[in-house]
Amino acid sequence: MEIEQVLDNALRKAAAIWVEPSGHEPRLVWALWRDGAVLVAVGGTEQVVPGLADGVACTVTVRSPTTHSHLVDAPATAHLAEPDDDTAKALKAARLNTRPEWESVYRLEFA
Fold first, then answer.
1. Of 33, 34, 35, 29, nearest to 16 (Cα)?
2. Considering just the CA atoms, what is the radius of gyration of the chain in Å?
């Protein structure tokens, strides 16, 4: 099975992933799988991910949402993104129990 298919299958179901920016400790974050990439909102009232910046190499670790077993580690590159209206709505909808206000959104694209 190709890594893209494994990622697609895993990330459609995962609400949280581990993100490890180069040179930093891994951090469990909520994320949104959209258009073949992971979106991570940071700052403001959202999560903090030390080391996450435009152009930074990251490792994304996905675990099974049901068994919590390790599914895949995948290299990615973070890109600062300006979400369009549909993407911003999807990010807000993914945070059902909060009023999200973020400073930045990163699109983690897989190599």
1. 29
2. 13
**Whole-model pTM?**
0.88
State what percent of residues in the chain have pLDDT above 70.
94
Residues linked to residue 19 through DSSP beta bridges, in sequence order: 27, 60
Q: Where do the domains of the chain lie, and which CATH numbers do they carry? A: 3-110 (2.30.110.10)
Q: Where are the beta strands (DSSP E) in the chain?
A: 16-21, 27-30, 32-34, 37-42, 57-63, 70-81, 104-110
Cα 97 from chain centroid?
18
pLDDT digits (tens, 9 = 90+) for 22-75: 999 999 998 888 888 999 999 888 889 999 999 999 999 988 767 777 778 899
* HSE toward the beta carbon, residue 88, CA cutoff 13 A: 10
Beta strands across the sheet bearing 104-110: 27-30, 16-21, 57-63, 70-81, 104-110, 37-42, 32-34
